Amino acid sequence: MALTPEQKALCRQYLGWSFGFNDQDSHLEQSFSGLETKPAEEALLTNPLAQGGLIESLQDIDARLILAHKRLKAEKVGTIQLNHREVDDLRREGNRFVGRLARLLGVEVRDGGGFSSGLPSGQTTRGGYDSPGNYIGK
Questions:
Q1: Has residue 38 been placed in a domain?
Q2: What is the rounded distance in angstroms from the CA atom of residue 95 to the CA atom of residue 124?
Q3: Is residue 86 in some structural domain?
Q4: Which pLDDT does position 8 carry in this prediction?
């Protein structure tokens, strides 16, 4: 069974690959096609979260990262100590799973992948930062 278009889009997102140039960037697309003849490897991607599926694991980490940004989480009861490491820990965990995804598909992770805190190479936002502490624009 082939990956759905949604599953392929999620893989591209987490690996840092472009959505718009699939015909020119065919290595990843060839890897997707190759999975059709390897059901065990495809299952590693598509299994439910409870069975360790990579796509659902990445989605779960992504959702937890979004929630971590929305709230403050106490690390222990009493004098409140905030868990400042939570976001970084989730990014590291996300990057670990992105690495597993890249190895399974035999492709590289581009521009730091979907859990990178920076912008893609050569791209900046007007009046923003291209890396921590490196201000660009007015």
A1: yes
A2: 22
A3: yes
A4: 92
